[in-house]
Amino acid sequence: MAEEFELNALTPLDGRYASRVAPVRAYFSEAALIKYRVRVEVEYLVALSGAVPALADVFAGGNLAKWRGVAAQFGSADAARCKAIERTTNHDVKAVEYYLKERWDALGLPAVGKEFIHFGLTSQDVNHTAQPLMLAECARDALVPRFEELVAALKARAWEWRDLSMLARTHGQSASPTRLGKEFAVFATRLEKCVAVLKACDHGAKFGGATGGFNAHCVAFPGRDWPAFGDAFVNDVSGGLLRRQKHTTQIEHYDDLAAFCAFSRRHALCRCNTVVLDLCRDCWQYVSLAYFTQQLKAGEVGSSAMPHKVNPIDFENAEGNLGIASANLVHLAAKLPVSRLQRDLSDSTALRALGVPLGHAYLALGSCLKGLGKLRVAEANLSADLEANWAVVAEGIQTVLRREAYPNPYEALKALTRTGKPASKDDIRAFVDALDVPDAVKAELRAITPHSYVGAFDASEFEPTA
């Protein structure tokens, strides 16, 4: 049955890639959304019992544990019951309220508390506390750790390959040599900084009644400071991950979510995706240049027609999924903060798709990590490429000659290296031998080779700790 579902799934996240995105599904499936709503409603009534005198004793004895158990033990059968109720109500949050009232009766809890379930709330108080909490916890528990795993993998390669010289390419042409480890250090430091921004993103919740002013709460119990109650509740139910937005309409204004996804100076998740995309394309190119071979797995086929092929499919898979993720994130960031007057429903259906870009991003990170794990450095090819490009030492030679006040050194090297045929090692040596400079300077210039002209790279920050 599971295989049949995957074969007939509308999206690859729930079909072909279902097992690879399971950690994200735990936060963004329909069942997960219902579970988070139940969690918010359950904890809201617990908090309300401390603010409303009539509820002071409702959770006496073992009643508190029974009530919290409704959320803690919520499973697939409970989610199915909520959906069954929704078929009658045609309202998903009201269905959760009715489900909780059923559970209240079944547990034999005091009748006085039953009508305080969902007391004074609009659906969006529940949704816009549940959904940002889903996002914050998914980021903390699934997405950020996967990004950090990739950062660690890049740092390990920066250290391992710190002394391997490699021909660089700018504009697709041979350029001053670099170190293979340094190129991976570039991505490690870029991604680490972007992930730090992602982790620092705020997550806002809306909790303030039908139009944001706690109207129903205030008319029922005018002596309470309901905004302060809301602040404390949101902080407590989220374990400090969320902060309540002070001034709202019926819905969250989504500015924090937009910053997390794509817009504003943070551009957080899209920036992370872009760095990984850049990494994948470079790794793909290094494989194309034969700087890397890929570890083979018995039985795998690279091409249905060409038996010799071992394709960099993991980096290609990651690239495709990162594009889908970021495109969706940009749309959500642009759409969600815009709502007609105090609210319209267009945000609701769009927000249900938030798990889609997170799923594609998570999938892409897994593919990228898998691709990195297959890479094996072809040191002989790195060396041969350097040896075939002696012209790249021209920068170093002309710079030393500038230091020595040699006349027109740039032009002299330009004439040597732009003749229409590659400048060889012998051509470079003959040029140096013919220079009118002291022998010590000639010896210095002869020591410049494509293998040694790699500049400075301090890899100490990437050294593994004991």
From TrEMBL:
InterPro entries: Fumarase/histidase_N, Fumarate_lyase_CS, Fumarate_lyase_fam, Fumarate_lyase_N, L-Aspartase-like, Pur_lyase, PurB_bact, PurB_C. Residues 15-320 form the Fumarate lyase N-terminal domain. Pathway: Purine metabolism; AMP biosynthesis via de novo pathway; AMP from IMP: step 2/2; Purine metabolism; IMP biosynthesis via de novo pathway; 5-amino-1-(5-phospho-D-ribosyl)imidazole-4-carboxamide from 5-amino-1-(5-phospho-D-ribosyl)imidazole-4-carboxylate: step 2/2. Keywords: Lyase, Purine biosynthesis. It comes from the Eukaryota. It catalyses: N(6)-(1,2-dicarboxyethyl)-AMP = fumarate + AMP; (2S)-2-[5-amino-1-(5-phospho-beta-D-ribosyl)imidazole-4-carboxamido]succinate = 5-amino-1-(5-phospho-beta-D-ribosyl)imidazole-4-carboxamide + fumarate. Its EC number is 4.3.2.2. The keyword Nucleus does not apply. Residues 339-454 form the Adenylosuccinate lyase PurB C-terminal domain. Pfam families: ASL_C, Lyase_1. It is an enzyme of class 4 (lyase). Belongs to the lyase 1 family. Adenylosuccinate lyase subfamily. This is Adenylosuccinate lyase.
